[in-house]
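re: the backbone from monday

yeah here it is again, tokenized this time
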């Protein structure tokens, strides 16, 4: 049985004090242990947030990780550094990184490997743009994005990773994929993995992301291949993030 997982992606939001208040607010409201839960915070907030959530069920993650282990890579943060500050997860290949900062499939695959080298669970983000969907290329795009990581890391690496399907057209737009659209993509991803390794496919958590809100989370999370969510905007408010968390079945 796969355990659900709900992850907040705070993106580039907040101040030192608002981040601290948000983490504390989530902890205070965290009721029944219905799922795994984590927040991916801006790098500079990591030490403080990691300290606040220490010894609680709330995990902490980064929003990216360097594709190299160390060295002259100005502006990057290595997996070893993240590990030292208590990071459990790192997002890799978020569409905002791919779109605005030129992260290619190959760079994303290298980031994925670096995270795993340090025992950090990569959350691999994949998904198609609106024009790709309109051209019926959704499955081709997902396949290419997955192939790059499988080719570098091997299918076995997905035994200790999370996938987040985030259709680009649904991110921050208020346009959520319907339950069926999301399920169809998740099924495709699981079948892709199953063709290479049945056990990996059965055990991996595949999250949906893109305008998940308290009022649409339940329907999405009820779909058989959706194991939770990667939440942007709605994770910036403790109450709405917890409502989404409590929507897992
Ligand atoms: P929104 O929930 O704000 O659409 O963002 C989704 C996302 O990009 C999470 O990584």
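seq for it, each position gets an aa:
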């Amino acid at each position: 049985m796969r355990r659900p997982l709900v992850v907040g992606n705070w993106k580039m939001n907040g101040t030192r004090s608002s981040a601290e208040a948000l983490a504390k607010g989530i902890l205070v409201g965290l009721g029944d242990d219905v799922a795994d839960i984590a927040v991916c915070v801006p790098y500079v907030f990591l030490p403080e947030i990691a300290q606040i959530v220490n010894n609680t069920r709330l995990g902490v993650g980064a929003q990216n990780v360097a594709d190299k282990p160390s060295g002259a890579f100005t502006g990057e943060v290595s997996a070893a550094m993240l590990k030292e500050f208590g990071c459990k997860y790192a997002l890799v290949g978020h569409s905002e990184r791919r779109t605005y900062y030129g992260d290619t499939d190959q760079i994303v695959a290298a980031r994925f490997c670096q995270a795993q080298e340090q025992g950090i669970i990569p959350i691999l983000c994949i998904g198609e743009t609106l024009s790709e969907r309109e051209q019926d290329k959704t499955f081709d795009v997902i396949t290419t994005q997955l192939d790059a990581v499988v080719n570098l890391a091997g299918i076995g690496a997905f035994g200790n990773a999370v996938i987040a399907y985030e259709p680009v057209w649904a991110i921050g737009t208020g346009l959520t994929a319907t339950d069926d659209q999301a399920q169809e993509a998740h099924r495709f991803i699981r079948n892709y993995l199953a063709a290479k390794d049945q056990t990996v496919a059965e055990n991996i958590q595949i999250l949906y992301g893109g305008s998940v809100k308290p009022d649409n989370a339940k329907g999405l999370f009820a779909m058989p291949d959706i194991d939770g969510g990667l939440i942007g905007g709605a994770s910036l408010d403790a109450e709405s993030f917890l409502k989404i968390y409590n929507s897992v079945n």
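The first helix runs from residue 16 to 29. The chain has a mean pLDDT of 97.
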